[in-house]
Predict the 3D structure of the following.
Amino acid sequence: MQVELKRRSDKEVLGGLTPGRAAFANPALLSVAIAAALAVAVIAIYVAGHHVIAQDVAIEDDVQSTNWGPLALTFPLFSFIGDAKGAVAEAVLFVAILIFNRRTWVFAAGAFGSAVWYVLLNHLILRARPTTPLVLHVTEHPGGSSFPSGHTIFVATMVTVLMICLGHRFLPRWGRVIGWVLAALIALANGISRVYTGAHWPTDVLAAILIATAWLCFWISLRWVRQRTLAT
């Protein structure tokens, strides 16, 4: 009886698995990934049926009519890093990871797969970009569909890979906290810039952040990826 109770206790601790076996994915991270993916699906369906959304127009107006002060100096940089320049930045970061923390290359390689989701949705949902009759100004005129924001997916992925693959290796514990705060602020500044320049609608940016969150959380939730990446 005592042996049976112990076995049951072990299974409860291990999530119903036999001792010595761990779950294929981290439940918390996987839950976040699923929740973010569902949110993307809801936004995508709504955007597909309502290409111009009143709330988007109102938020865009608020963002463009705000004086962002020194933060506005970063907006041209976020516009600059698109297209082939972004691919070059990814390659440079990947090479740095191979040199300074090679065991994390699996996470980095898979993380940049977030671009695949951008391409799929960008071709699946054709949405017109903001125009001056609807917004205050348009200072950037990228081509193609507006949904989702490729720049935002790229920046969110880059700062996450940088922190997980290099930040966690070389920064002290307190430095990691500062690093993650800076990463979040960079992603936020990029999102504001995409709306401020009139390149994207707010829902394009929101969906992009959720896409990056869903994919990166799913990828790092996988046990074999997480063990390679976060092993000490």
